[in-house]
Automatic annotation (TrEMBL), chain A:
This is Probable tRNA sulfurtransferase. GO terms for cellular component: cytosol. It is found in: Cytoplasm. ATP binds at residues 188-189, 213-214, 270, 292, 301. The lineage of its organism: Bacteria, Bacillati, Bacillota, Clostridia, Eubacteriales.
Length: 400, 394
């Protein structure tokens, strides 16, 4: 008997002609996430993937592998399965009973049913016949177990596909679509709580990411930059390899500060950030921007402010947390382990140059008029884009 | 990694660069004398000798008996042990403690803890520079005052407390009251003689005098018994268990010896740098004043400046581009003046003034040439920063 992992994927199984594309990418992503453990063998089997150990001397690998795979987007469930070749009814029945003994001890009372799937339609019994026959032997072996075909506490799955697979417990996966199947977007990553969550949510829909961070040395400490890189490292555990662009932003901020009304600082700054992010996105081959904006959370995230900010963008801007309360965002941040890093107390460039009473209902015309006082901005933006420091993160590490 | 050639390190109040002699000594221990001092064999004895030698050096600097010196993990452990230990051993006599405002957290936090446990913490009045008022001190001593604790040199402002006089007053008015001095910023730089000055407990740390981090020395008067908080194998004469940090202790001994032998030259050279820098900065840039004691009167290695219209944290990061390292003494998360800077808060300074204050702290290696370069950098940076003073998050 061997152990293996059966991987269930939801949404992509119902894709049409592109299904193969999604499956191949998912298999590749799983292979990649397991690479630090070794070269695993991944087979596609009728709407599932099956992972086997690279060699026969592998034991106890399923737990760690399942934990890694549960973070791969596109996976909805992972089952640790017992696999054996002998497919006579007696052999299956003996193995199923042994499986129950091993996983449930057999004593505790529970309700159950047996579900059978046959890929091998030549098998002498139908799925229904096999299920009820197996159920009968289980009832005999474990008197405390009772059949409930409607709401059983335990479902024993038996699948015949060349070999026989037995499993019952499903470890939930993260869901979503395989990373890299939806194209690429540029994430405006600030170091706060919201933007890593926004990036994670969009990566979950299959996007590859690159990140854009605005650094205002000496007004912000290099520790703030370090913090953003740490957040990107955490995101890369889910979203794969990504480049972080550190934009030198001080000169632009000072120009705005010097020439524009202070209550408009944040809006003008954000409009310029979007323009820079778009330029970086184009360089990266990305087709959208992602921000962590949440409606009404701060002055720059009122509808009027978002209207003004959005006006400079040509690409679609994804704001996946726009309708979330702070607590909802914090819950996700905790579950993807970015929260503790996000709350480190370094000021970022957004908080350091803010007016006492920033505009909450900016008028686009007024903002555009103020911006006309910045005639060199186009060159300054070019200069900032060209002057970016680029840091690559992959699998939780910074790489050269 | 070698120190960058053009680096000007002026954050010696935070920590210092280990001297060549200290590094050599520690290397010797790490490579050769790696035994455990508790081992009975020769290798153990060899390691023990390094510890003994260091203990004797510290004792010499303090003019004390080597058996009154205990090695710890650093200044904070020393002060915690001294304060909490003194409190618990004299609880029956009273629950009143005198201290100063603006103490280091290694003192103020244990005191806060005691206050929560029902102790009464009272503050000795000071003059406008933060120096203890001896008359007020005398008046506030009570029958049930069991402990007096203060810094000899304040780590932020460099103000020097009259601990010798305070010890004298205690001898005269309250012979049973224990006296703890946190000498982390002054040990082996300035004179402090606990036996002569009637000090019962004294904290010191290696890394402020070009020694290694992670090692401290606690002086406890010989006949004074305070409880041990770290129990185990019985090292440090049953008082502070745990295998001795032999390389650290040897490094501490070496650092203390070098510092003490050279103290006059070092003090003079640091004082010279400090006064020169202050004078040149004031000459070239408007709106620069000092916080705390007159530069001539405070500790030679600490200068606290207020630079009007410039946030210290921004200045600090701008200076780092010139390879110049200073301190803002602020935890940027907090907006409470007394948390950002306890000592400046105690002087009654506003949050804004504290935000504009930097601490420059010198070492034996500081030079006038470096001071000229600091002045030049400041004349370039400060006018630029003053044009843009973000007022958002005060």
């Amino acid at each position: 008997m061997e152990k293996g992992l059966l991987i269930k994927y939801g949404e992509i199984a119902i894709k049409g002609n592109n299904r193969r594309l999604f499956e191949n990418r998912l298999a590749l992503n799983i292979k990649e996430c397991l690479q630090p453990m070794g070269e695993f063998w991944i087979a596609k089997e009728q709407g599932r993937l099956f992972v086997e150990a690279p060699g026969e001397d592998w034991t106890d690998w399923t737990e760690e592998a399942a934990a890694r795979i549960s973070k791969v987007f596109g996976v909805v469930g992972i089952c640790v399965v017992d696999v054996f070749s002998e497919d006579s009814f007696e052999a299956i029945s003996a193995n199923v009973n042994r499986y129950i003994q091993e996983h449930y001890g057999g004593d505790a009372a529970t309700t159950f049913k047996v579900e059978v799937k046959r890929a091998n339609k030549q098998y002498p019994m139908t799925s229904m016949e096999l299920a009820s026959a197996l159920g009968a032997t289980i009832l005999e072996a474990y008197p405390a177990w009772q059949v409930d075909v409607h709401k059983p506490k335990t479902v024993i799955w038996v699948e015949l596909r060349g070999r026989v697979y037995v499993y019952s417990k499903v470890i939930p996966g993260v869901g979503g679509m395989p990373t890299g199947t939806a194209g690429k977007a540029a994430l405006l990553l600030s170091g706060g709580i919201d933007s890593p969550v926004a990036g994670w949510m969009m990566a979950k829909r299959g996007l590859e990411l690159c990140a854009v961070y605005f650094h205002a040395h000496p007004y912000t400490t290099d520790r703030a930059k370090e913090k953003v890189v740490d957040l990107a490292r955490k995101l890369s555990l889910y979203a794969g390899k990504m480049r972080v662009y550190v934009v030198p932003f001080t000169e632009i901020q000072l120009s705005i500060y010097e020439k524009c009304p202070h209550e408009q600082l944040t809006i003008i700054m954000r409009r310029i950030m979007m323009q820079i992010a778009e330029k970086i996105a184009r360089k990266e081959g990305a087709l959208a921007l992602i921000t962590g904006e949440s409606l009404g959370q701060v002055a720059s995230q009122t509808l009027q402010s978002l209207y003004c900010t959005n006006e400079v963008c040509e690409m679609p801007v994804f704001r996946p947390v726009i309708g979330f309360d702070k607590q909802d965002i914090v819950t996700i941040a905790n579950s993807i382990d970015t929260y503790e890093t996000s709350i480190l107390p370094y000021e970022d460039c957004c908080t350091i140059f803010v007016a006492k009473h920033p505009e909450t209902k900016p008028k686009l015309e007024a903002i555009q008029k103020s911006e006309s006082r910045l005639p060199d901005m186009a060159q300054q933006i070019e200069k900032a884009v060209d002057g970016c420091e680029v840091i690559t993160v992959y699998r939780g590490e910074r790489i050269e | 990694m070698e120190t960058a050639l053009n680096e000007i390190y002026l954050d010696n109040g935070a920590t210092t660069k280990p001297s060549k002699g200290v590094v050599a000594k520690m290397r010797e221990v790490l490579e050769a004398a790696y035994g455990n001092p508790s081992s009975l064999h020769r290798k153990g004895q060899e390691a023990e000798r390094y510890v003994k030698e260091a203990r004797e050096t510290l004792a010499q600097v303090l003019q004390a008996d080597p058996v009154s010196v205990y090695f710890t993990s650093g200044g904070t452990e020393c002060s915690n042990t001294a304060i909490l230990g003194a409190a618990s051993s004299s609880e029956r006599r009273g629950k009143h403690i005198l201290t100063l405002r603006g103490e280091h957290p290694a003192t103020s936090e244990p005191l806060k803890y005691l206050q929560e446990q029902g102790w009464e913490i009272e503050y000795i009045g000071t003059d406008e520079q933060g120096r203890a008022d001896l008359e007020d001190f005398r008046c506030k001593l009570r029958e049930d005052t069991v402990l007096v604790t203060c810094l000899q040199v304040n780590n932020e402002t460099g103000v020097i407390q009259p601990v010798q006089e305070m010890g004298g007053i205690l001898r005269e008015c309250a012979p049973h009251t224990l006296f703890h001095v946190d000498a982390v910023q002054s040990f082996a730089k300035m004179e402090i003689f606990p036996r002569k000055w009637n000090i019962d407990l004294l904290s010191s740390s290696a890394h402020k005098i070009h020694g290694p981090k992670g090692v401290g020395g606690l002086y406890i008067r010989r006949d004074l018994h305070i409880p041990s908080f770290i129990r185990g194998g019985g090292q440090e004469r049953q008082f502070r268990s745990g295998t001795e940090n032999v390389p650290g202790i040897a490094g501490f001994g070496q650092a203390a010896k070098e510092a003490w032998d050279e103290r006059r030259r070092r003090q003079e050279s640091m004082q010279c740098c400090k006064l020169y820098l202050y004078e040149q900065l004031r000459k070239s840039i408007d709106g620069i004043t000092h916080n705390g004691p007159e530069p001539r009167e405070g500790a030679a290695h600490i200068l606290n400046l207020r630079i009007k219209g410039v946030r210290s944290e921004v200045l600090l990061h701008a200076l780092e581009d010139y390879g110049i390292y200073v301190s803002s003494g602020s935890a940027c998360a907090s907006n409470k003046p007394d948390v950002k800077s306890p000592a400046l808060g105690a002087l009654g300074m506003s949050a804004e003034a504290i935000d504009e204050s930097v601490r420059v702290s010198f070492s034996k290696d500081s030079t006038l040439d470096e001071m000229d370069r600091v002045v030049k950098a400041c004349t370039e940076i400060i006018p630029m920063l003053r044009r843009f003073t973000p007022k958002g998050r005060r």
